[in-house]
TrEMBL record:
Protein name as catalogued: Putative nuclease HARBI1
Family: Belongs to the HARBI1 family.
Subcellular localization(s) per the UniProt record: Cytoplasm; Nucleus
GO cellular component: cytoplasm; nucleus
PANTHER family recorded: DDE TNP4 DOMAIN-CONTAINING PROTEIN, PTHR22930
Keyword annotations of the record: Cytoplasm, Hydrolase, Metal-binding, Nuclease, Nucleus
InterPro entries associated with the record: HARBI1-like (IPR045249), HARBI1_animal (IPR026103), HARBI1_dom (IPR027806)
Lineage: Eukaryota, Metazoa, Chordata, Craniata, Vertebrata
General function of this protein: Transposase-derived protein that may have nuclease activity. Does not have transposase activity.
Amino acid sequence: MADIDALILILARRNARHKPPRIQTKKRFRLHQNVQQLPDELLIERCRFDRDGINYLRGLLSDKLVNPYAHNHPLSVEAKICAALAYYTSNSFQTAVGNFVGVSQSTISHAVTHVTDALVELGEQFVKFPPPESHEQEKQQFWDIAGFPDVLGVVGCTHIAIRAPPGDPHTFLNHKSFHSLKVQITADINSTITSVVARFPGSSKDSFVWRKSPMAARCAAGYLGTGHLLGGPGYPLRPWLLTPVRQPATRAEELYNQALRKTLRRVAVTCRLLKKRFRCLDGARVLNCFPEKCGRIIIACCVLHNIAVARNVPLPPEEGAATQGPSREEEEVEEVEEEVGETEEEDTESPQCQLGWQKRQTVIQQHFEKL
């Protein structure tokens, strides 16, 4: 009996020597569903872009997202883009992970970072002020809103909620008692963002953000020519930046303020569309990153917003329906003005302020006293 057991052991060892080596398969990350097979309605709901839009982004970002030194079949370019879009749309890594199989939350986080950095690099290509040759067309389009002359854009600030940063959190606490970045944008008639600044804490004043912005320097250098921007009461009066009359004493000044307010509504609508398109910015959940990374995410969303506007990509029905109607726009204007919550003290001794006052008076006399 012992001889039989010994023979079995010898045969088992011999077979083990000749057993073919085990082939280890590498883990592949794949989309839970093929994007090319999903209907556009579902893609817009999940990613805010249709199939053609995602293909466009893939072609745009491919060179920046492909890592030639990566191993073990990392996420494809398309998967990285869809993961980032799912995060921007929901502000949840869990939602983004839910659209994938075999992908960890850390993998999605890295994908969001890579896509964000790639989009920020393209910021100057997609977030830019209209060139001088199109200024007359811009002026005419803004004139058609309320009869305000020579307007080339509108400027305003909004708050994007972030987590309390370590070290110096109180500077990010805004007047509405939550931590935020104060984001300044300029917008055109089509709700395209023409400039964005997203690096100052929520306690900053509008006038401070404006003075530190590249747009202010360009305006002071004469880039707007005879045109100007419109801003709210938190902005300084300048020849290139007209603001409301604080205490209108004549009917012409009241008409001026009404036209300015109606035209300025476009920046409020733009802020609202941006937040509706990318829910990570709407305050329902704070951006859970350090302020610098939050600023980069905001800029990335602005780039995507402009691409979506240029390609006429609609919002999902439940989102897009809420953007229609003058009553909702009025509510958004009030919300943005409430976010501003401040009034800039006019430095009447400043030569620039005096030139701004003279231009404002000229506009009132030439265009609103006749009405």
